[in-house]
Amino acid sequence: MAKHLRQWNHAKYEQYLSMGRGFGEGKNYTPWILVQDFSSQGTVSRVSGYKTGRVHHFLSKNELNYFYILEWSDKVIDIREQFPMINVELAMDIAKKAGIKYPCDRKSGFPYVLTCDFMITTTDGLKARTIKSSQELTNKRTLEKLEIERRYWETIGIDWAIVTENEISVKKAKFIEWIYDANQLPAHLKEERIINSVIENCDNTSIHKVALETDKRFGLVAGSGMRIIKYLLLNKLVNYDYENYCIGIN
């Protein structure tokens, strides 16, 4: 796990607020926690989002994989990661009533701002989701902080749930990550005759076979056919069978 660099106190809290952390929507949102707040880059990552048009900050592989699943969903409108429970007084009051010690900085004694990993704007409303490994759910202190989260979001009327690795399809996430860089396709590869030809040949056929045949048929540089297919998959003009590694027409 990456080591956090924050020395948390009232001055730091005010600085975060002045920076706009935790506020905004879409491309104007700034996460409460950024990857540069950590000394190690081993488990954190930054990815440009198509839905938001901004760089997203993730603190674990499970968060990254879940992000790709959200990006792929037609029901998801906006994705805000490291979203703060900004009403600290409410969170502390909830903890007190539940008999749970609220987390504070050991040195300054100043209360931390708890965050949920994702605040998702969907066609069905707002959904708060916290990513935890199933192993973490055996830790008593972790469960206590999750209970504060649960009651907090329930109090303000937002659907909240925990997502573990068991609910995240790594195979699907890796597939989306694989095609993620294909949004920008050179104009000469977007010719209607080429695109139509590829789509017509995507009839439950091996993705590699279609790619190679496309390169050969149109005299394209090796790899062009695969790039076209990734573009079509990303824009959901063809579909992909994860189990049989075939592509088909929607």
Q: Outline of this structure?
A:
This protein is of the alpha+beta class and 250 residues long. Helices cover 36% and strands 19% of the residues. Helix 2 (61-72) packs across helix 5, helix 3 (88-98) crosses helix 4 and helix 6 (192-201) packs antiparallel against helix 7.
Structure description:
The model has no long low-confidence stretch (mean pLDDT 92). The protein has helices at 10-18, 61-72, 88-98, 140-155, 170-179, 192-201, 207-218, 224-234; strands at residues 45-48, 55-58, 76-84, 115-122, 125-131, 159-163, 205-206, 238-241, 246-249. It is elongated, with a radius of gyration of 22 Å. Helix 2 crosses helix 5 (170-179), helix 3 crosses helix 4 and helix 7 (207-218) crosses helix 8 (224-234). The protein starts with 9 loop residues before the first helix and ends with a strand. It is α+β, with helices and mostly antiparallel strands. Strands 3-4-5-6 form a four-stranded mixed sheet, sandwiched between helices. It has a three-stranded antiparallel sheet with strand order 7-9-8. It has a two-stranded antiparallel sheet with strand order 1-2. The chain is built from eight helices and nine strands.
Keywords:
single chain; 4-stranded mixed beta sheet; 19% strand
N-to-C CA distance: 41 Å
- Categorize the overall geometry: elongated
Q: Main sheet: which strands, in order across?
A: 3-4-5-6
Q: What oligomeric state do the depicted chains represent? A: single chain
Low-pLDDT segments = none
Q: Topology as H/E string?
A: HEEHEHEEHEHHEHHEE
Mean pLDDT: 92
Strand residue content:
15-25%
How many E-type strands? 9
The secondary structure category is alpha+beta
**Biggest sheet layout:** 4 strands, mixed
Quickly count the helices.
Answer: 8
Question: Percentage of helical residues?
Answer: 25-40%
